[in-house]
Amino acid sequence: MSEPPAHVGLIPDGMRRWAHANETTLADAYLRGAHKVVEILGILQRHQIRTVTVYNLSRANLGRRDEELDAVYQASMCFFRDMIPTYFDPGTCGVRLHGDRGLLPPPYVAAAEHAETTMRGNDFRINILAAYDAVDEMRAAHRRAAAGGGDIADAFEITEVDLVIRSTPEPLLSGFLPLQSQYAQLRFLDTPLNDLQQEHIDDVIADYRRLPQLRGR
Predict the structure, then answer these.
(1) Cβ atoms of residues 173 and 186 within 8 Å
(2) CA neighbor of 69 nearest in space, from 28, 123, 27
(3) Element (H or E) spanning 23, and its range?
(4) Are the beta carbons of 77 and 43 closer than 8 angstroms?
């Protein structure tokens, strides 16, 4: 079997459908989703994955209804402020927010920056994409490359992704790290995020390890 993926992308999706199917509120669905993301992060860490990038909000998502955005923001602030420091060691786990912070509510940014300051480890890195847009990321990388005289491919802050997991069966990346994911294995799950169990993630990692990682070669 091959090595486990070094970098996993996680696209949590389906909260609205789960709330409707379970006759609960969006706030409850997204809060449960935040807990489930933490649970999945812990499973991936035990599989010796070094980096996980979680797609919290694209810039396009910011056009959704205020009710839904408020539910996302509240759950995310709890994720940054309470869940991550409780379940992960700040000496080994690092957190970084990527995206246009100026488009996000100040309390959200404050919670994320507190997590960034508190969680400074390098053994297990958690990237959160919020108000993220791939074109913005490319422009920023171009500016860094031009300023430093380097190559744009080396100026991206987020590294190459090996495996992307989306918690809905729709075969879409929805703008998730398109350059870094160009050779990633893609898995679209039938089980909603809030109903995922450890065996679902274990099976995905096992499947990845059974396949050769050719990277186009």
Answers:
(1) yes
(2) 27
(3) none
(4) no
Spatial neighbors of 50 by CB under 8 A, at least 6 apart, are 6, 7, 123, 124, 125
Going along 13-145, which residue ranges are E strands?
A: 51-55, 93-98, 124-129
Q: Which tokens is 181 given? A: 């994911």
d(CA 37, CA 33): 6
Q: Which residue has the higher pLDDT, 1 or 188?
A: 188
Q: Which tokens hold the place of 20?
A: 């409707």
pLDDT at 57 over 90: yes
Q: CB of 39 within 8 A of CB of 53?
A: no
Helix (H, G, I), strand (E, B) or coil at 55: strand
3-state secondary structure of 156: coil
Sheet containing 51-55, strands listed edge to edge, beginning at the edge strand earlier in sequence: 93-98, 124-129, 51-55, 7-11, 163-166, 185-188
**171-193: pLDDT as tens digits:** 999 999 999 999 999 999 999 99
Find the radius of gyration of the CA atoms of the chain. 17
- pTM over 0.90, yes/no: yes
- Please, are residues 162 and 213 in contact by the beta-carbon 8 Å criterion? yes
